[in-house]
Amino acid sequence: MAFLAVLDACVLYPVELRNLLLCVAEQGVYRPLWSERILSEMRRSILRQNPHLSDDQLDHLVAQMKIAFPEAMISGYEPLESAMTNDPKDRHVLAAAVRGRADVIVTLNLKHFEPEHCLPYDVDVQTPDDFLVHAYHLSPARFLAAFDNQVSRNRKPPNTREGLIDSLAGVLPELTKML
Length: 179
Fold this sequence. Notes:
By secondary structure, this protein is of the alpha/beta class. The protein has 10 helices and 4 strands; from the N terminus they run βααβαααβαβαααα. The relative contact order is 0.17.
């Protein structure tokens, strides 16, 4: 069985990062988890950076994510939020991870998830770079299949391996060095 990873909203709104995380999940390297609140935060962040997008386009994106990963949705975590001691803005993420029995939270906000707040629940916290490097080592063939799948799906640049590597280098420096 694949390990479980809560994807924080901050790793879901950059399009190329989201696509790579989800392509790797499609290959069965891990199973993604999220909540309605995480998806709402993602949606708001996408709209803030891309105000030209319509509600229909964002609704379509969220619907496609839910269709592709029907087991990803975590609910019933809200009563746990008050017990969480991490950053108040992200207590819902840790509560969702606990409720979903996640192995890891993938986030760019490491400061919001200090070890003393997460270790009691046996939840690791990783940057997307660390997470994807580990995913690569777990299954290089499936990871590379996911990477190539993302390249083939891109209708406009980055639609080559080199182009995708270049576009991800800022947020995934260790992974892109490996690739």
